[in-house]
Amino acid sequence: SQTIHQWPATLVQPVGSPLSLECTVEGTSNPNLYWYRQAAGRGLQLLFYSVGIGQISSEVPQNLSASRPQDRQFILSSKKLLLSDSGFYLCAWSVLSGGGTEAFFGQGTRLTVV
Amino acid sequence: QKEVEQDPGPLSVPEGAIVSLNCTYSNSAFQYFMWYRQYSRKGPELLMYTYSSGNKEDGRFTAQVDKSSKYISLFIRDSQPSDSATYLCAMRGLEGSQGNLIFGKGTKLSVKP
Fold first, then answer.
1. If you measure CA to CA, which chain A residue comes closest to B104?
2. Residue B40 needs a FRET pair 20 to 30 A away by CA distance; which of A86, A89, B30, B88 works?
3. Could you tell me if B29 lies within 8 Å of chain A, comparing CB atoms?
4. pLDDT in tens, A7-34
5. Residues 6 or more apart from B95 whose CB is under 8 A from it?
6. B103/A11 Cα distance (integer angstroms)
7. Which residues of B fall within a CB distance of 8 Å from A97?
8. In this structure, what are the phi and psi dihedrals at residue B81, rounded to the nearest 5 degrees?
9. Mean pLDDT score, B81-88
């Protein structure tokens, strides 16, 4: 069965510090991978998605970047965090074939920038 | 007009009540419709998944899609305190950026014992 791992669960970082959040998927090949941010009252905002190694699409211009160094690894990064980067970050995967399928989420990372 | 509209609630019901959760959308290209349940400080988990119009039932949960009205619903029968969570609707089209999920903001449900 497929599983998705996301870590850390909680992170407190000072303004201006770097960020690296990692997500890995097991039990599937060539998944589509996604990073979402969820802020209170604002729903899930798609930040990045990737259909393959080294292929990253950005949905929202911002202080963050993403990379996919391996088929089942997706990394969210920032060189210098802003207060506005605080939020709940979720990694997700799906496999699109033909019409498409649903997405499955990790347990999230709660980031607080202080 | 936002692509997906969902009443944020909160919605409070007594145990055993029938719960109706709804979303409306504007993009007629959406073909796949999902409901996710999210407990506090956890990632969303998939509850129901339907394609195009129609009904789908799974235990106490029923999902309905009316594409002509661009309206989807999730019904929960015999609601339990363990159903207390935020419910997110999501939908997608077929290809390109339309293949990415678009989420509602979620409705917070509280089922009182």
1. A43
2. B30
3. no
4. 999 999 999 999 999 999 999 888 889 9
5. none
6. 25
7. none
8. -55, -30
9. 97
| Mean local confidence (pLDDT), B55-61 | 95
Place of tokens 């993403």: A66
Give yes or no for a contact between B15 and B112, defined as CB atoms under 8 angstroms apart.
Answer: yes
How far apart CA B3 and CA B27 sit, in angstroms, is: 6
Torsional class of A95: left (φ above 0), alpha (ψ -120 to 50), beta (otherwise)? beta
Chain A residue with CA closest to B39: the answer is A107
Answer yes or no: do A46 and B100 touch at CB < 8 A: yes
DSSP per-residue string spanning A32-54: EEEEEEEETTTEEEEEEEEEETT
Determine what percent of chain A is predicted with pLDDT higher than 90: 67
- Confirm or reject contact between A87 and chain B (CB < 8 A): no
Instruction: Note the pLDDT of residue B96.
Output: 54
Q: What is the pLDDT of residue A99?
A: 46
Q: Please say whether the beta carbons of A14 and A112 come within 8 A.
A: no
Strand A43-52 to strand B107-112: parallel, antiparallel, or no bridges (unpaired)?
unpaired
Cα A111 to Cα A99: distance, rounded to the nearest angstrom: 34
CB contact under 8 A, A105 and B32: no
